[in-house]
From TrEMBL:
SUPFAM superfamilies with a match to the protein in the record: P-loop containing nucleoside triphosphate hydrolases
Alphabetically ordered keywords of this record: ATP-binding, Kinase, Nucleotide biosynthesis, Nucleotide-binding, Transferase
The UniProt record lists the keyword Electron transport: no
Organism: Kluyveromyces marxianus (Yeast)
Transmembrane segments: none
Enzyme class: transferase
UniProt KW Transferase keyword: yes
InterPro entries: P-loop_NTPase (IPR027417), Thymidylate_kin-like_dom (IPR039430), Thymidylate_kin_CS (IPR018095), Thymidylate_kinase (IPR018094)
Pathway in which this enzyme or protein is active: Pyrimidine metabolism; dTTP biosynthesis
Source organism, top-level taxon: Eukaryota
Protein name: dTMP kinase
Residue intervals of the Thymidylate kinase-like domain: 9-192
């Protein structure tokens, strides 16, 4: 049996990652399973959710970084066994968000290499679609923006710059930057779906790892 493929939807804040991930899964049906990070339903995910939504619950930046990574490791065995069983897996955020949001805090010692270390050994996606927009100001009007800890314009600007530094630091031939500026949900979907189908059609068996 051919192993399933790992498809990652990454991107800047409120660029439609969850919307597009859900549309891909709806389009492909039973052959695909969706995971969203942070996975807030696990023990570690509960702590992350509290950190993001409750400003009185603070943690050192190093600790919350390690929790985000530990949250991916919590779910890793399940993802790997699905891939082995031939199911495709779609991820809504993953390692790149983990490194970019933490490194953007610019804490001494917490550089990109430090931030990537705890994620080393996780499976690298067969396709990463990075949803990017030229200016995030219009996205702040989208539902729910500003409710969580990192949803501040100045920090998002830093995160945007850091994502591109992370891409320079982590080579990945299977990563595509998709400009969603001014595009409707359907237009973005029509851009990414052919890329997804192409990867699902590959019969490569080897896994890549961060
Ligand atoms: N974080 C971290 O620090 N470290 C890590 O390791 C990980 C994450 C994994 C919570 O993540 C925070 O955790 C996040 C990064 C950090 N902090 N921030 N900022 P999350 O994934 O749970 O965040 P979220 O609340 O789901 O927001 P999001 O993912 O940024 O949004 P989105 O998924 O990209 O957008 P959406 O929910 O699909 O769409 C938002 C709205 O826009 C919705 O009303 C849509 O209908 C609408 N929409 C979507 N696309 C369009 C288009 N094309 N046109 C018009 N309207 C649209
Ligand atoms: Mg989302």
């Amino acid at each position: 049996m051919t192993r399933g493929k790992l498809i990652l939807i990454e991107g800047l804040d409120r660029t439609g990652k969850s919307t597009q991930s859900e549309k891909i899964v709806k389009e492909l049906g039973d052959e695909v399973v969706l995971f969203k990070f942070p996975e807030r339903s696990t023990p570690i995910g509960g702590l992350i959710n509290q950190y993001l939504t409750d400003r009185s619950f603070d943690l050192p930046p190093q600790s919350i970084h390690l929790l985000f990574s530990a949250n991916r490791w919590e779910v890793n065995a399940k993802i790997c066994s699905l891939l082995e069983s031939g199911k495709h897996v779609v991820l809504d955020r993953y390692v790149y968000s983990g490194v970019a949001y933490s490194a953007a805090k610019q804490i001494p010692g917490m550089d990109i290499s430090w931030c990537l270390n705890p994620d080393k050994g996780l499976v690298k996606p067969d396709l990463t679609l990075f949803l990017s927009n030229q200016d995030s100001s219009s996205l702040q009007d989208r539902d729910g923006y500003g409710e969580e800890r990192y949803e501040k314009a100045a920090f998002q600007k830093k995160v945007r710059e850091t994502f591109f530094q992370v891409f320079d630091a982590i080579p990945d031939d299977n990563r595509v930057i998709v400009d969603v500026t001014g595009k409707s949900i359907e237009q973005v979907f029509d851009t990414i779906m052919p890329l997804v189908r192409k990867v699902l059609g590959n019969n490569s068996e080897d896994y890549l790892y961060f």
